[in-house]
């Protein structure tokens, strides 16, 4: 019998089922499987279980983003000049060029964590600091 394969024969004569569980050899936290012959229903299949410990893990992800330059360019595109395939092709090529230049110039890597807030900016920091100093209700509302 190969390592990692557990077979059970519940004393039945025919239609025996091999109960399989594939585990990573040498990992002690996965070396705790159980065979439950009492959970068996009408077949001779004995369910197998394993408890896999899952710990909370902080995974840092990142993405790139383009700042407002590209948004402003897109907003200002004059589509009235697109009257044929050639003008459409020129507009698309210009757009692709602007996207590439804007990306190269303005993209930045943002680390995403479970505490990330996409809406938080420098004004939020400034207003929070102002409130912390003054403790005034007006500064809190501004924050």
Structure characterization notes:
With 143 residues, the chain is an alpha+beta fold. 34% of the residues lie in helices and 10% in strands. It folds into three domains: 55 residues, no CATH class; 48 residues, no CATH class; 27 residues, no CATH class. The strands form two sheets. It has a two-stranded antiparallel sheet. Helix 1 packs antiparallel against helix 2. The protein is flat, with a radius of gyration of 31 Å. The protein starts with 33 loop residues before the first strand and ends with a helix. The N terminus is likely disordered.
| Number of helical elements | 4
Approximately how much beta-strand content do the residues carry?
5-15%
Shape: flat
* Average pLDDT reading: 75
Which secondary-structure class do the elements indicate?
alpha+beta
Task: Please count the beta strands (DSSP E, at least 2 residues each).
Answer: 4
Low-confidence stretches: 1-9
- Summed up, the domain count is 3
The first-to-last residue Cα distance is: 68 Å
SSE topology sketch:
Elements: E1 34-35, E2 48-49, E3 61-65, H1 68-75, H2 85-106, E4 108-112, H3 122-134, H4 137-142
Antiparallel strand pairs: 1-2, 3-4
Helix pairs in contact: 1-2
């Amino acid at each position: 019998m190969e390592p990692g394969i557990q077979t059970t024969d519940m004393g039945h004569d025919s239609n025996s089922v091999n109960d399989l569980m594939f585990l990573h050899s040498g990992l002690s936290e996965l070396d705790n499987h159980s065979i439950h012959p009492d959970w068996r229903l009408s077949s001779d299949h004995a369910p197998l279980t394993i408890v896999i410990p899952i710990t909370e893990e902080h995974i840092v992800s990142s993405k790139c983003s383009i700042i407002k330059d590209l948004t402003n360019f897109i907003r200002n595109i004059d589509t009235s000049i697109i009257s044929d395939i050639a003008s459409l092709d020129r507009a698309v090529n210009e757009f692709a060029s602007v996207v590439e230049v804007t990306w190269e110039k303005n993209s930045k890597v943002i680390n995403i964590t479970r505490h990330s807030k996409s809406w938080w900016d420098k004004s939020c920091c400034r207003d929070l600091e102002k409130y912390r100093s003054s403790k005034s209700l007006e500064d809190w509302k501004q924050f």
